[in-house]
Amino acid sequence: MSARFRIGIDLGGTKIEGAAVDVSGLMRVRRRVATPVQNYRATIDAIIALIGCIEQEIGATASLGIGVPGAVSPKTGLIKNANSTWLNGRPLQRDIETALGRPTRLANDANCFALSEATDGAGAGIDAVFGVILGTGVGGGIAIRGQILVGANAIAGEWGHNPLPWPTPDEIPGPPCYCGRSGCIERFLSGPGFTADHYCHCGESLSAPQIARTAESGDPDCGGLSGISTLYEQVPRLWTRYIFSDRAVTRLLPPVHGDSSGVRGAAWLWRPEEAP
Ligand SMILES: [Zn+2]
């Protein structure tokens, strides 16, 4: 029996990564190329070339899923909310399908992360998974029983541009945000937000990983905020007092797949039985 492959593409602002994942979840081939910044046509050509290269290596045609920054508008099918702004307003899915001559599935990259962890990562076997992204921005995605919850506006799970809950007086109105409001969660919990808040309170300019290292005075390799191990102990200890329930059994877990979540989640946009 020939192996069935699913290809996942993670379209990032600086690199496009692609991987072929086999039926057992193993990544057989993984390739990356630089993103042709500000050039839509060249971005499509790069994705098509990457797929061709991967399929040549695996010697098979695979299903294709693509994780994109931003969202696919349910109304128009055009990309919106992408910080890779040259994608906004473009019919990316249609253009890729036309170039390839076969169906392709697109999803927001945070949703791909949630799907990856819900399928065979930290949230495997759990009914409802909220994938939290704390990086240059604050984002997230929701997977319910192994399926992405897109939502009517295609922004389900995006929690970064809501106000900080129960702010202290010095956190009001909060720093201005590019979305047009002030005091958004992203202005506090993103890497840049964390740095700015630390500077306000301590007068020293440190990156988020430096602050984490200082706070933790332990792991010198501690990377992004998801690498701060004390978060996984302290937050569940604190959240019971804020959750409107007699008990909170929610688990807060670090991601299993790390940097591979984008390509894995994109690959999982097709179920195994749908792979050619
Ligand atoms: Zn905002």
Structure description:
The protein is of the alpha+beta class. Helices cover 29% and strands 19% of the residues. It contains eight helices and ten strands. A hairpin with a 4-residue loop joins β2 and β3. α3 packs across α8. The longest helix is centred in the first third of the chain and has 19 residues. It is globular. The two termini are 12 Å apart. Bound molecules: zinc ion (ZN). The site of zinc ion (ZN) has 6 residues, from loops. The site of zinc ion has 6 residues, from loops.
Shape descriptor reads globular
> Unreliable segments (pLDDT under 50, ≥5 consecutive)?
218-222
Main sheet makeup: 5 strands, mixed
Named once each, the bound ligands are: zinc ion
Secondary-structure blueprint of this entry?
Blueprint: E1 5-11, E2 15-22, E3 27-34, H1 40-58, E4 63-68, E5 71-72, E6 79-80, H2 92-100, E7 105-108, H3 109-120, E8 128-134, E9 138-144, E10 147-148, H4 186-189, H5 191-202, H6 208-216, H7 231-239, H8 261-267
The structure holds zinc ion.
Zinc ion binds next to loops.
Summarize the structure.
The chain is built from eight helices and ten strands. The protein is an alpha+beta fold and 276 residues long.
Attribute tags:
three-stranded antiparallel β-sheet, 276 residues, binds zinc ion, globular, five-stranded mixed β-sheet, alpha+beta
